[in-house]
Write a structure and sequence with these properties.
- Helices cover 37% and strands 8% of the residues.
- It contains six helices and six strands; from the N terminus they run αββαββααββαα.
- It has 263 residues and is mainly alpha-helical.
- Among the domains are: 48 residues, no CATH class; 94 residues, Cytochrome c-like domain (Cytochrome Bc1 Complex, Chain D, domain 2, Orthogonal Bundle), CATH 1.10.760.10.
- The N terminus is likely disordered.
- Strands 1-2 form a two-stranded antiparallel ribbon.
- Strand 3 and strand 4 form a beta hairpin.
- The longest helix has 30 residues.
């Protein structure tokens, strides 16, 4: 009787492990759902534009859903929003992709008037805080909005993010070394030609790939390899396996300079 119970418990435990492994891709996929910021409600039904910090926003008077601003109008809104953000973050340097100085004769971005003051902007005068990886960390815990890109993060936040990132990369390594997880039909896995992602050179994408006869991203080439040498089915762009594979391959080349288009 005791042996029977032990056997049943052992079988149940094994079943739980198998179920947990099977649920891993679904759990990762659930974590990849896109979050949306809640913009402030307005009475007149105008469009509200919000920066990616999830706080700095502005109501565009007269602009209704489905309508479109001209490029000049949109640039004006963006400049006012960024000016407001920079006033609240005087110690942060926003590195632009292009030269920050305006061309000769171009007007300087105007500071928003009181009527144009973005809604939900954080109050000025925040004290200087300790920094980790260049991001300020408040000495005392502050309530944070989920998804706030420019919140004052704590050391624990960085540890959680690092752990989650590493788990995702580790899952990509599992997929890379498993013909079954790749969905292959002939027993071939990625590591058989590319041990530990060798000679994948993710830093050289995008580039023209002869196999595809077009400019390809890294994930395009991953899909091509799955469909051809591995003899499996291509993966959807949000498939957790494809995303994890891409993360693992990139992680293996940490520190290598980007050199897109190189062959």
């Amino acid at each position: 009787m005791v042996r029977t119970k032990v056997a049943l418990l052992t079988a149940a435990g094994a079943g739980a492990v198998v179920a947990a492994l099977a649920a891993l891709p679904h759990a990762l996929n659930a974590q990849q759902s896109i979050a949306h910021h809640q913009v402030p409600a307005v009475k007149d039904g105008n469009v509200v534009v919000m920066l990616c910090d999830g706080k700095t926003s502005m109501e565009i008077k007269g602009l209704k859903p489905g309508q479109r601003m001209s490029r000049d109008q949109a640039m004006g809104v963006a400049r006012r929003l960024m000016a407001a953000w920079q006033r609240q973050h005087p110690g942060e340097h926003w590195q632009m992709a292009q030269a920050q100085s305006p061309p000769p004769g171009a007007p300087s971005p105007a500071a928003p008037s009181n009527e144009e003051q973005p809604a939900n902007a954080p109050s000025p005068g925040a004290p200087a805080a300790q920094q980790i990886q260049g991001v300020p960390i408040q000495q005392q815990a502050q309530p944070q909005q989920q998804g706030d890109t420019y919140a004052s993060f704590h050391e624990r936040d960085f540890r959680v993010w690092q752990n989650e990132t590493q788990k995702f990369i580790d899952y990509g390594k599992q997929v890379f070394h498993s013909d079954k997880l790749l969905g292959g039909t002939i027993g071939v896995s990625c590591d058989m030609c590319h041990p530990d992602a060798a000679n994948t050179h993710p830093e050289t994408y995008p580039k023209y790939q002869v196999q595809l006869q077009r400019v390809a991203l890294l994930r395009d080439m991953i899909d091509w390899c799955i469909e051809n040498p591995v003899k499996g089915k291509t993966m959807g762009p949000n498939d957790p396996r494809l995303r994890a594979l891409e993360a693992y391959i990139l992680a293996q080349r940490k520190g290598v300079a980007l050199d897109y288009g190189k062959h």
